[in-house]
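INTERNAL TRANSFER SHEET
From: sequence group
To: structure group
Subject: dTDP-4-dehydrorhamnose reductase

Please process the attached sequence and return the structure record in the designated field. Keep the field labels unchanged so the import script can parse them.
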Amino acid sequence: MLFTSTAMVFDASSDGPYQTTSPANPQDDYGRMKLASEQAVVSACPDALIARIGWQIHDRRGGNHMFEALSQQMEQNGKVTASETWIPATSLMSDTAETLMALLLQGQRGLFHLDSNAVASLNFAEIVKRLNNKLNAGWKIDVDQSYRHDQRLLDARVVMPRLSCRL
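Return from structure group:
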């Protein structure tokens, strides 16, 4: 069994980077629901693979991913606001899918962290700029310091392409 969870089980009140052994401290309903779901999965299926992932990046509109959210923000506000003091856990959707498949084929069990930004540590503003350039999105980007958090998910057992090389 595979269950995908989220970096949101860690609240910004306690900075990362987070290891799989770091205590979860969700403060919002989504993070609490995901942590409770992790616990329910382990209870029902102790051999499950649980993968915590960050905000996913896709190159097409539609769905719940970074490009879509930023495109909507641009349409609604005429600009995209991006904090340079937030280091998000994030990966390209295709890289996450390939890594999940590899873990399943290897027969892995237990809790894993998947984050293409874990090593590169690109801040959100830099990611938004690179994504804007890569996809020719035409966004007006307003860089600020409105959100501070190191959200990176570390796991030495997982090798993913570095986000800095993919964007």
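Handover comment: The two ends are 31 Å apart (CA to CA). The longest strand covers residues 2-6.
Transfer complete.
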